[in-house]
Amino acid sequence: MRNTPIKKFLIPVLGVFEPLTFSMPFIREKKGLISLVIIAGLVSNLSLLFVPIFIGDSVSALQQGHARYIIRYSLLILLAYSISAAVSFALNYGSQYISQFYAMNLRKVFILHLLGKRFLFFESQTSGDLLSRGTMDIEATRNFIMNTFSSLIPTIFLIGEGLVLLYQVSPFYSLLLALATPVLVMLGMRSSRKQRTVWRMIRKTYGRMGEILQENIVGQRVIRGIDAEGKEIAKYSMETQRYYDENLTVGRIRGLYNNLMPLTVASISSAALAVGGYIDLIRGISVGGLVSAVTIFSMLTNPVSFLGRMVVFSENSRAAIQRIKDVISTENEEDVNSGGFNFQKGPLEFSRVTFSRGGRTILSNVSFRAEPGDFIGITGKTGSGKSSLVNLIMRYYEPDSGKITIAGKEIHEIPISILRRNVAIVPQEINLLSGTIKENILFGLESSLDEVEKAASVAEISDFIDSLPMRYDTLVGERGITLSGGQRQRIAIARAVLRKPAILILDDATSSIDPDTEERIFKNLKETLKDSIILMVSLRESALSFADKVLILDGGDMKEAEV
After folding, report:
1. Could you tell me the pTM of the whole model?
2. Cβ neighbours of residue 49 closer than 8 Å, sequence gap 6 or more
3. Quick one: CATH architecture of 348-561?
4. pLDDT value at 198 more than 90
5. 482 burial class (0-12, 13-18, 19+ CB within 10 angstroms)?
6. 19-195+267-328 under CATH 1.20.1560.10, yes or no
7. What's the pLDDT tens digit per position in 494-512?
8. Which band of pLDDT confidence, cut at 50, 70 and 90, is reported for residue 240?
9. In CATH terms, are 19-195+267-328 and 348-561 the same topology?
């Protein structure tokens, strides 16, 4: 289809409804309320449109010497305003309810998809940008949805109803308004196109600001330790200045067009009053009819101008929707369907596994076998692929070739949710909730306090916890900031032990723990998880000496060392 002028006009106008179309899956179950809100908008505006008619009739009554009708028309005007006000309350409350319901459901879907993304997705995103999408972007779309129901749809009804009434009073004014509507909408569309690119830049800058702020909060000790406060302040100030400049650009565009549209409205209204009034007086129309026509025309010009502005405002929401869609799409998502799979404990085997990233081969034809009850150490130089190897077991990444099996079953045939329920990992970077010690050990499980205490005892953290006034109800602060590195690692080990995994992976998980405590933890693990496979990644000789066998990674190849 050719890109005709009509098509160029209609596409941006219809684009105003893109946020509404996007929102429908999240508000579909509120169809009844949506219908009531739309009816409320219809009734509210229709009531208001009768006011100019009553005013015109009252003027005609005075002109004809029927003063006794003034009280009647005054009461009718009051009634019309009262109906409009009462229905407007329902309209505004219903619009707010629908928009909040939409945002609530969208946030649930957002976190569902976000947590289902593959790890490669997060490697190409910043946390600040994702936070911006899950907060600022969702709120921008919610606000537009609210305005769509409370203002946009009622405005469209108002223009349609008004044109019908206006045509009955004065065909000239209805024709003039019909011709003015595309002009005002075109102004809004032109403004919209100028703002589109800037709004996308604003979203990205806001995400970078959030990322820098988060890094400075989390890494405050490092930043202060190397005297980098000035550099970080300058970096954040630069992004803030960019955010300020981009918003000023939008402000200039809006300032120009938001003033140009009222000026256009005023010019049309003046012309309508001068020309239309003269024509109607020649035609012999009553003064009351002229007053009604001019009043209705004036009432409709602002809504038409508003329609143009909504095209402008929709750009913010549409830009936000695109960023949200990038997260809630099924692209780059893991298949977490459990499918009633029956997990069986058994040997873990790597068979000629090759894995590469960024064009660099990290693991090359790696093969080994671990039996239940084995305690295997994995070591190698920094960057040799130790963490990559254990991450393949968790299916954080997929190998290029080769097979990884558990009890003879290839892990890609095991549903991810089942696999990770039976394979526990204590990573290098320990993440604790800003809750209690008990909540951090449970981390979603519904185990008894006695089981939690046993897991803490295995991790050699129970004595420390018992020394605290609130014991397991002690708050650990955000990311466990009130605990030492070794204490955080032992809580994470207790968390893994509580899950009674078939395979336990310790990825340099005792690096901040002293050798004596480390040895006791390993002895406890071997005793408690005697039917489980324990894989320990470490560079410490004290830790590796406890392993049944040690596997060495070097240049992508694996060999076994003598213990």
Report:
1. 0.71
2. 158, 161, 162, 165, 296, 299
3. 3-Layer(aba) Sandwich (3.40)
4. no
5. middle
6. yes
7. 999 998 999 999 988 888 8
8. confident
9. no
